[in-house]
From TrEMBL:
InterPro entries: ARM-like, ARM-type_fold. Residues 1-23, 188-212 are annotated as: Disordered. Residues 200-212 have a biased composition (Basic and acidic residues). This is HEAT repeat-containing protein. It comes from Micromonospora cremea.
Amino acid sequence: MAPFLTLDGDPDPEIEYGEPPGLAGAGLSLRSPDLLRHFWPNAGPHPQTAGRTASGSSYSLLPVWRRQRSWDAVDWSSVQHAYGQAVEVPDLLGRLRSRDREARRSAYQGLFDLLVHQGSRYEASAVATPFLVEIVADPKAPDRFAACQVLAAIAVGDESSWLIDRPDVAKARREVERQAHLTRAQLEQKQADWAAAGSTDHERRARARRNEFSDVESDRDAARWQIAAYDAARAGVPAYLAALASPETPVRLHAAHLLAWFPEERESIAPALAHLIGAEPQPMVTAAASVAAGLCGGADDPELVNALSARRGSDNRGERWSVVLGLARLVSRPDRPLIEELYACLFGAVGPVPYWPMLNGDMATFAALTIRDLDPAVAPDRVQTLVDRLNAPADDTDRYLLLRAALDTAFLTGPIADGTAFTDLDADQRTAVAGLQHSGILNDGAMVSMLLDAYNLPRDEAAMTRWCDSDSDHESGCAPGSQA
């Protein structure tokens, strides 16, 4: 999670996200002029100095989100955060309006650490959310953009997991309601049925092992807290929509990013994003809104498609590629030029993109996950493209997520059956296996081994080589780039 900075009070304030892992010692930072010019060549003045949106929306028209009770009225000792009783939370909430910018910064980081730990949310996450929404809605509050950042984390937890799993929130909500009435015995039976339903012996054993170390009632509570946190953040959508009219560029940017996660509210969100995309003078805000439109909008939404298409030829790489990312998710059958632009983003967006809120600026990984979701009929070369990117020279792109995108794309039906030979794989699957062997990622540790295990593939390089070489009829089958 990017650190939170306050921007008020400086004669020449700056947005600063710090240096993500991988940049240390590389001679670059997110404020590097060369890096900024690469993605935002025509961005104009520093983002914080830009005034109102091009639409001229009045900041004074923002509705004020009124909390129903003070946080002092909450018994924080009765709710839990990541480390126990949430007794620290009211003090942290109070410091969000401090005149001391460092106090505000540390309070936001503290809230994030307590309310969203490794993607998990807790009782206290939902209880604290209305007070953060109030910050977003208050025109006089400092650091409203930071409140948006914490709210996005409360809503979805780990952003990469959300993008990978594409959860059906409405279905999860119904399941939480159904499980609320089950006894422990019924929950344990449901858990046993889930383990038995694995598609392979290997998967069934893995599920059974998982069940040995879990508690059904704790799992039920965790699911309930995640939905409660999401719905508490979702209730603030009117405030986030109003914040799109803020004269502060960081507020507009992070409000747009936050709105991406609430597709159930697309009826009100989509028109607002379309308007922002059409009127916004700052390309980094347009970029955030474009990606949000792709995640939140309905398929082939004409208003969003038209707004994005109008900005498709931008000179700013960050804006242009973000528009492509949004369109590729919106249109049901993207044309070949759009797909080629998406591939260009995959290979061209190396290193964290400044001011890009998704995945801490990792636009290439977002492009990979977008390619994964393309219809095979319109992008038959998508597996080879992802494999080529996995084998590209090392940069700051998340190799694990690139591998996940490639495997998800090649193995559309999930894990292979027990006893499957390499020669039983289809062409895309053989391409993926050959590519990951060539990439060296098989030696990247436990996370990679667990991912391969999830597909019932050999877990390490030696086992993979033996599997590929087990049939003399495919002498070059695992050679890099082999399609046969």
